[in-house]
Amino acid sequence: MNNSESKEKYLSEKKCMIWKKRTVLERFLMLGLLLLLIAFLTSIGLLLRSQKTNIVEKPRKDICLTRMCKYQAGSILSNMDLTVNPCEDFFKFACGSNRLYQNIYDDEIRVMHTLLNYMIYLGKEQLEKPNYTNDPTFVKKVKKYYESCLNKPTALKEVVKEFLYEMNLDTWPQIENDKSKSTIEEAATAAMVYKDMGLLIGIFIRPIHPKITLDLGYVTIHSDVLLNNTEEKFIKLKKEYTNLMNYVFGKLGLSARDSNKYVKEMIEFETSLAKIQEDYRRGYSSNSTISELRSKCPQIKWTNLMELLFEYIHHSEYYTGELQIRLNENYINALCELIGNTTNKRAIYNLLLWNVFIRYLPRFDYYFRQRLIDMKHVLRFRENFFKPLSGIHKLKWKSCIQDMESYVRTGLDYIMIKSMNPEKDVKEVQEYVNRISESMEEVFSEDEWMDDYSKNVSIVKINRITSHIGYGEIPVDKDFINLLFDNINFTDNYIQNILQVRKRVFSNHIFNENITAMMYKDYISEPMKVTAYYSDGEVEGRLAITLGIMNPPFYNYNSPKYLNFGGISFVIAHEFSHGFAELYFNEEKLENLTDADEDFTIHWPKEFMQEYNRRRDCLIRQYSQLSLGGNMTVDGDYTIKDNFADNNALTVSFRAYEKYLKQYGKEPSLPGLDFSNEQMYFIGYGQVIYTML
After folding, report:
1. Is residue 641 part of a domain?
2. Nearest CA among 59, 14, 86 for reference residue 679
3. Cis bond upstream, residue 173 (ω within 30)
4. Where are the beta strands (DSSP E) in 383-490?
5. Bridge-partner residues for 546, per DSSP?
6. How far is 545 from 436, CA to CA, in rounded Å?
7. Domain-terminating residue out of 354, 381, 408
8. Contact status, residue 351 vs residue 266, Cβ threshold 8 Å
9. Which keywords does this Swiss-Prot/TrEMBL entry list (predicted)?
10. At 321, phi and psi to the nearest 5?
11. Residue 582: its pLDDT value, please?
12. CB 205 within 8 A of CB 193
């Protein structure tokens, strides 16, 4: 204890001695250094605190972290190539990475293809849900139709046999020395009912004015393929067409020798038929009766044909031998002469049924389907399966949904719209339409090269465009859809179900004008289709934006507006612009046009058209210089309409977005994408436009 105290006393005295030994000057210097050290440390602390305060108070950039924003960010980042300078190659910058992983040999590398598959999958989900007691009757019928398709046969021999049974025919093809009792008239009836236009004749009936109109039928393939024997491309297409016939006959068990023989007969008759259809397309029309036709053209059993037709669609009560007929007299005379001069009548029978089967067999045979898709540009009919889908040869449900008949598809549209509740989407897209319309008016008003009259005409034309967004009236009208399905009772037999619907469609087309008119009235006939389109009428233009295209990357209700303006808004402006992509000069000129002019017709002034065509030609030359690789360049004349629409749409939709920003202010960024709102508009536009190249 004493030692410890002594030690502390010693140390204390030693410290005092050290301080006491210092001179006064040294003491002042030591105190000064100490004060300087304290001041220095205090300054450092204040500086660090100031920097920390600045970091915290610096406003952070808002980032959208919703599920949709994260999805959009991931999708865009996976497409972009951030190593590329956008000022040097914006295309590669916006979507260069995506193209590295695309199969360039695919028929479809577009987002349209992806969205179509997505919409079909949504349809599958709804069709495979259980029935509910409060479902409309037609909903159960649609699901029954789908179920029957999932169990459809795949062997062509079995398929053809089933079709013949349902059509009350005994054989196809008719061959030499067979004992078939089926007639040309029976086959012609099937061709008229089960295909949109008959092969030999087309027919139209109005019950209010009991008169049948008989007009030209249509050969299965474009006439040039049959009639042009000099150009290599048509010779090749004709060969592919005959190969299709031989393929089917081979599947039905015919030898190559017999198949070639009957195919040759069919091609010869169809070629002759194509010739008279071309020669008498605008023939003289006259009135007649069935009785008079029998004496004028005995080569066709007209009474049998008409009785069969009316009986076939369950309207025998409308038939009478004195039924008035309006016909293309020159064509009917030439047709009757051709039939009379045809030695092997089986060629006519076989071709009539080929005209039917070519439409339906692709639903059962993948090879046949693919060959028709390859030839779709020269076929005289259109089917949904012309749009190829990935995996369709393995996934039967895809073809079952894609191949649905029109009435059944309408029922499915109802089911899907009810499940999607798209009202808010439709409302917002309509707002985009309004903004685009407004921006286009401003662009026209400010164009210095346009005279006042032409500006006024252009603005009136814009205001005359009616928009159809999402879907029409029919897919949400339960009573009307129930009427479509009236007297249709689906079974487990898919082929029987197909023909039931086709009979109903044909019957309504002929005998129920109200249903036909309503179906034509709905401008959006297939709301789940992934498309947008514009058409010009005599008085007004019409714009359609389907529900199918109202999905990313084009649109989503919860997406930042810069993506929607770069997507769906650009698409809307593109379609609007098609109304101005091809204008013509007219000597006449209307003054003081307003929206209220009932008989509004556009008359473009001569001076305006001269400058318009000069600018249009400049755009053609510009695109014609774009290289496609090797020695190939873009055909500017061929692409001018879309080039014009794209250029104008980009200007108009960006202008609309700039106005939106002024009105509502800046938007949050997407995660990982540190770009301005304006830059994101163009990046979003890039995600859309690369899919269309």
Report:
1. yes
2. 86
3. yes
4. 466-470
5. 470
6. 14
7. 381
8. yes
9. Hydrolase, Membrane, Metal-binding, Metalloprotease, Protease, Transmembrane, Transmembrane helix, Zinc
10. -65, -20
11. 84
12. no
